[in-house]
Specification:
The protein is of the alpha/beta class. The chain has 8 helices and 13 strands. Strand 6 and strand 7 form a beta hairpin. Helix 6 crosses helix 8. The two termini are 32 Å apart. The C terminus is likely disordered.
Length: 231
């Protein structure tokens, strides 16, 4: 498996590179975002690890440029910026994971392997949600001639709701399933993603994501109890 590591701290980058190569990974290291983008364009890796604060182009802007061309290759942010707003911004851009510095190499390897396994079992199902069509594999939500590309987290959350239509999904289960390693991820952060998906689904008033007090969320389609189904 090939890894693109974009990290401006040379000492840290060498430790990470040597450790990953010892485990059998092929690692390409770049010192800044500009070099990282050129490397990505030259040869697509299996997974991307980005620092956020870098010269020439920061990790957030690099991820935006990558996601404009590639929505599937996993991106892991590796950074000292750990404010909730930074974490949410990373996920909004399309990151798959967000690791706080300092970290252990063992933790990084676990998260890399988790993301690679998720990629291997890529979701092929498509769903109808009222008047919407949802392509989980390509992270596309469409209605009529309007098509929206969802972030990885948005897509996974909507897929989970679709697979458990008319069931109550508890906040704990959603956080544990979708943000397994994220101890900073709170119910409030989950609310932000739910609110965003509600906005995406507003064109069909029959589709609702209901907040069940002190329990969780439920996806309901009024006009057809069985409207959400794999195609």
């Amino acid at each position: 498996m090939s890894i693109l590591l974009v990290e401006d701290e040379a000492g840290l980058a060498k430790i990470v590179t040597d450790s990953l190569e010892f485990k059998g990974y092929s690692v390409r290291h770049c010192l800044n975002g500009k070099e990282g983008l050129a490397s990505f364009m030259a040869e697509k890796p299996d997974i991307i690890i980005l620092d956020v604060m870098m010269p020439h182009m920061d990790g957030f802007n690099l991820a935006i440029k990558i996601r404009a061309q590639d929505t599937k290759t996993p991106i892991i942010f590796l950074t000292a910026r750990t404010q909730t707003t930074d974490v949410l911004k990373g996920f909004e851009i399309g990151a798959n994971d967000y690791i706080k510095k300092p970290f252990s190499i063992e933790e990084l390897i676990v998260r890399i392997n988790f993301q690679l396994k998720q990629t291997e079992k890529s979701i092929d199902k498509k769903y109808t949600i009222g008047n919407y069509n949802f392509d989980g594999k390509n992270q596309l939500l469409s209605i009529n001639d309007q098509v929206r590309t969802l972030s990885y987290r948005e897509s996974e959350l909507l897929r989970k709701l679709c697979e458990h239509q008319h069931e109550i999904l508890t906040r704990k289960d959603l956080i544990d399933d979708l943000w397994e390693h994220e101890n900073f991820f709170t119910g409030r952060s989950l609310d932000v993603f739910i609110s965003r998906i509600r906005t995406y689904l507003k064109e069909d008033p029959q589709v609702r994501i209901i907040n069940i007090r002190k329990a969780g969320y439920q996806l309901v389609i009024k006009k057809d109890e069985f409207a959400v189904s794999p195609q």
